[in-house]
Amino acid sequence: MYSLKPLVRRIQISGFCLIATLLTAGAATAQVVEEDSDSSSGSPPKPNVLLIYVDDMGFGDLGCYGSDTESPNIDRLAGQGIRFTNYLSAANVCSPSRAAVLTGRYPNRCGCPVCPSERDGVWKQHVGLPLDEITIAELVQSQGYATAAFGKWHLGNLNSFGPMKQGFEHYEGALYNFPVGKTGQWYHREEPKDKIRFAQAHQRLTDGTIEFMKQQQSDGKPFFVYLTHYLVHGPWSPNKAFCTDKQWASVKKKKGGMNPIALPAMVRELDHHIGLLMQALEDLGIEENTMVIFASDNGPWLPAGSSGPFTSGKYVTMEGGHRVPAFVRWPGRIKPSQVSDKMVSALDLLPTIAAASGATLPSDRTYDGYNMLPMLTDADKQSPRKQFAYYNGVRLEAVRQGDWKLHLPRDPKEAVYWSNEKKDPHFNLKRPVLNQLIDDPSEKKDVHRSHPEKVSQLQAMAEATRAEIGDVGQQGNDQHVKTYPGNYQVAPWRKPKPKR
Question: Which of 122, 136, 315, 395 has the fewest other C-beta atoms within 10 Å?
Answer without folding.
Answer: 122
